[in-house]
Design goal:
The protein has about 110 residues and is α+β, with helices and mostly antiparallel strands. The protein is about 25% helix and about 30% strand. The protein has a single domain, classed as 60s Ribosomal Protein L30, Chain: A, CATH 3.30.1330. The two termini are about 15 Å apart.
């Protein structure tokens, strides 16, 4: 059975199937913040969604990160590393990309075990 959360006409924020939780791309609600601020917002959204699925950041299986400016990579990493539990870093990819809204600096897609 597939369990979907916050289903819209275009996407669901999250789906859970066979003990794996798949999140849609998470972006900052307040696009006026700098990379560190937007990264904190995105990670808080990820925490909240994972909690709803009965999971948490210690169970991340993979993370894909899209950023608009590679100069912001160090700020992203500083917030990311402070957020991760010790010795629980998942496989991760970070790429430069044009995001759907110009104010967004970062978007993250994660997969986690439940």
């Amino acid at each position: 059975m597939v369990q979907r959360f916050d289903v819209g006409t275009r996407l669901s924020e999250m789906a859970v199937h066979n003990g794996v939780c798949y999140l849609a791309g998470q972006v900052a609600a307040d696009g006026s913040q700098d990379m560190a601020g937007q990264t904190r917002q995105v990670l808080a959204a990820i925490d909240a969604l994972l909690a709803r699925a009965g999971s948490d950041k210690s169970k991340l299986l993979m993370c894909q990160i899209f950023i608009t400016d590679l100069a912001d990579f160090p700020a992203l990493n500083a917030v990311w590393e402070a957020w991760l539990p010790a010795d629980q870093a998942p496989p991760r990819a970070t790429v430069k990309a044009a995001l759907a809204k110009p104010e967004w600096k970062v978007e993250m897609v994660v997969t986690a075990a439940v």
